[in-house]
Write a structure and sequence with these properties.
alpha/beta, 35% helix, Glyco_trans_4-like_N, Glycosyltransferase_grp1, 390 residues, Glyco_trans_1, three-stranded parallel beta sheet, Glycosyltransferase
Length: 390
């Protein structure tokens, strides 16, 4: 069986690329196709595979400004020749699922979210676009939206990384999806030593790419008001603005190595998570280190954080709501047991993901070859079938 893995771009090792890495381990002979490839920023596991890029990779400044070429990516995908492959796995968040496959091949789409640029985040991207690009965006995105809807029919089976995303897939594509949560390397935290007090040395932690929708500003404003210490790990376009608004108790440390980040997790009192995420790997990493999470009660965090066991929630993206949550957390901090939190996080481990994904794809390849057309959803608003362990 020949396997192709299609990913939107390979320019760093974030959540989507961790999925690709696990897929590479599951299918060691697979070939990878992508729009843009920066091998120096990609793990050895992925680099060990043959990687083919679209013509986007050869355009001026594509390695830094690849997102500017978004309108050309549908055309670029359709130029890829995947006729030799029996199984095609597309990793969708940017344009990836629109490839043309052989009629008898199985095309499985692992969807992190329907393209944020054209659906859930469209108005945010439009408002933040520069004056030269903004007038062109409505027409270009309208065409891309039409293409994205049409290419959903090229997928035989959808897998969503969370129930939140499964619901978006139904809303946008009217397609049902199986839910398999993405891989998190929970075992790596077993060797990380926490401070003598078991963690919680007095400061809170915020970990994220610093872009607008992650809402780091809410955390910084809340901790400025409370006068409590907050360590912010991450870099991005918002870094300078957030640095300016940070008070004396808020420290922005920028990029950290994996080992440094692990130590930050182990040493913090709790992780603060303010984003409405598709899934959210950061809270699971914090829980794998035995630390509780104070999370927005929306999106993927509602599927990973167990209220009262591994953390607690706040309902609104406001500093006031976060301040209230921190005060509630401190009033009941002793009830959060690091060992119980680690056990809870283990259900999202990388090995669990690989086992569930392999079982699911094998069943489709071996038992349902004659009926690859997707099943109709039984009801509007379907949230997918859960395949993560209870």
């Amino acid at each position: 069986m020949k396997v192709a893995i299609v990913h939107y771009w390979l320019v760093g090792m974030r959540g989507g690329e961790k999925v690709i890495e696990a897929l590479c381990e599951l299918y060691p002979e697979a070939d990878i196709f992508t729009h843009v490839y920066r091998p120096e920023r990609i793990s050895p596991v992925i680099r060990s595979h043959r990687v083919t890029t679209t013509f986007i990779d050869r355009l001026p400044m594509a390695h830094r400004m690849y997102q500017k070429y978004l309108p050309l990516m549908p055309l670029a995908l359709e130029q890829l020749d995947l006729s030799a492959y029996d199984l095609v796995i597309s990793s969708e968040s940017g344009p990836a699922k629109g490839v043309l496959t052989r009629p008898d091949a199985l095309h499985v789409c692992y969807c992190h979210t329907p393209m944020r640029y054209v659906w859930s985040g469209y108005h945010d991207y439009l408002s933040s676009a520069g004056p030269m690009i903004r007038p062109l965006m409505p027409y270009a995105i309208h065409r891309l939206r039409q293409w994205d809807l049409a290419t959903a029919a090229r997928v035989d089976r959808f897998i969503a990384n969370s129930h939140t995303v499964a619901q978006r897939i139904w809303r946008v594509y009217r397609r049902d999806a199986t839910v398999i949560h993405p891989p998190v390397e929970t075992k790596r935290f077993a060797t990380v030593e926490a401070p003598d007090d078991g963690g919680g040395s007095g400061h809170y932690l915020f970990v994220s790419q610093l872009v607008a929708y992650k809402r780091a500003d809410i955390a910084i404003e809340a901790f400025n008001r409370m006068g409590r210490k907050l360590v912010v790990v991450g870099e991005g376009e918002e870094f300078r603005r957030l640095k300016q608004m940070a008070g004396p108790t808020v420290e922005l440390v920028g990029h950290c190595s994996p080992a440094e980040l692990d130590r930050h997790y182990a040493a913090c009192r709790a992780l603060v998570f303010t984003a409405n995420e598709d899934f959210g790997i950061v809270p699971v990493e914090a829980m794998a280190a035995g630390r509780p999470v104070i999370a927005l009660n929306r999106g993927g965090a509602t599927e990973t954080v167990r209220d009262g066991l591994s953390g607690l929630f706040f309902d609104h993206q406001t500093p006031e709501a976060l301040i209230d949550a921190v005060e509630r957390f401190e009033a009941q901090e002793q009830r959060f047991n690091p060992a119980a939190i680690r056990t809870h996080a283990a259900r999202f481990d990388r090995d669990v993901f690989k086992l569930r994904l392999r079982e699911t794809i094998d069943s489709w390849m071996n038992g349902e070859e004659a009926s690859l057309l997707p099943e109709r959803s039984a009801a509007i608003g379907s949230r997918g079938r859960e395949l993560a362990p209870a």
